[in-house]
Amino acid sequence: MPGQLSKAAAIVGAAEANEIGYPETPRTSIRLHIEAIKNVSDQTGIPISRIDGVFGAGVSSQIAEYLGLHPKYIDTTAVGGCSFEMHVHHALAAIYAGIIDVALVTHGQNGWSARATRGRGTGGGRGPADPWSPEAQFATPYGISGAPSNYSHAMTRHNHRYGSTPEDFAHIAVVTRQWATLNPRAIMHSKETHPEGGPITVQDVQDSRLVSWPLTLLHCCLVTDYGGAILITNPEIARSLRTKPVWIAGAGESMSHSNMLEMEDFTATSAAASAAAAYKMAGMGPDDMEMAMVYDSFTVTAGITIEMLGLAPRGEGFTLWKDGHAAPGGRLPINTNGGGLSFNHSGMYGMQLLVEAYRQLSGTAEDGVHGIAGKQTSARSCVVNGTGGSLSTTGTLVLTAD
Amino acid sequence: MAYNKPIPDPDPTSQPFWDGAKEGKLMLPRCTNCNRVHWYPRIICPHCHSMEIEWIEASGTGRIHTFAVQHRAFGGWAEEVPFVTAYIDLTEGDRMFTVLRGVDPNRPEDIKIGAPVRVEFEPASEDVHIPFWRAV
User: Is A129 near chain B, with CB under 8 Å?
Assistant: First the structure.
């Protein structure tokens, strides 16, 4: 039986900034936020002035101020790329409680443009690490250099424990690229969008340059610009709009650690716990899911996550891609936008998951920007899982079509 | 040549660890209530939440839990690529991160999870000696 909060609110619109990926002229994070917010307001017909809850990863007050809003609910949960799935969880609770009517979840990040601007326009973000932090004293001195250098350790452990291989995980990159070829906004859509774009093989993945063994470059996500925003509201308002509601049937969140020093099991994440909570609220289970949107910062992230979500046995998550089930036309489409691996990854990718899940379940996945058909699936339910930090934090949603 | 990689900055909680390192000792925090070792140093036991923490001199031995080979790095470490990083299961419990010595970064298939390792210390400055683990 579903929990009380199940379907107490719906996502009623999802939109992106006008230019994402590698914009020709540098974008600021605030522009990426604002364009997406304006677009989702136009899409739904909900005026920006009607937003009374603002949910952003660390930047909620800046966004509200920029828009001249004085919201009743302000949530700045910033625990990495899964923050946005958690925002949906929190917005669901706030709407159920009657505190707010219209929640904005917003993301803008100029991961690509910040290179050209040498760090300008990021909208704050992280300063230098505290030299007294555990990470600064006990990890940084050993040459660790960002996410790839950490996540590789998880792949090695998975290979050791389950007898899996980097080639097994390379299938995730190959199939995800197939989806990207159907998304004209994907960086790796084709040779027109990127010199290395278009279909790839397992051999291509394994032959790309080593970043952090066993991860080669094509096991790793892109670094791009992205702006995305969704609006969430109560059933009454949701029914009055011109857009289709996508129901938040279940939501859950959890974490296992912050720093990878504290990761107990390198082949597991807290998604097992956050998914259990989301399935319980929804009164549904893994067998009821008709597609999945899972954070693929690296192939290993997606592979392990599928195991945590109960969509494959432990140690066998990669088989959904290797056997073609996750591919276009397969029984369980996964990452239909082309993923962080081949579509877009701005640094925190959780919003990209939500926008695509909304589009799929509202039947608008093919509108893209150039009207190219192909990636719309027939799925009526989708499990969405964000993963933040160093396989640290997770937010899981069960979304259903109207 | 001066040490050209990041040098840790000891804080009041971790100071006993760095004092020990300077003398070639691997000091670990242990809870006097539940007797479990934890890493990184804390003022409260993450297992039983007692605040009675003592420092013990550890054996300086452990085993490889998992590892990777870094082919991209920044600062002083950029000159060292490729190098092997590893998480080490300490004989006394819990886990430390390290650059692993005594292994060939170009032959990762020869590095074995579970293989024994021993700690050594490199003087990075007069006050800070950094622990590194070596395959034995």
Answer: no
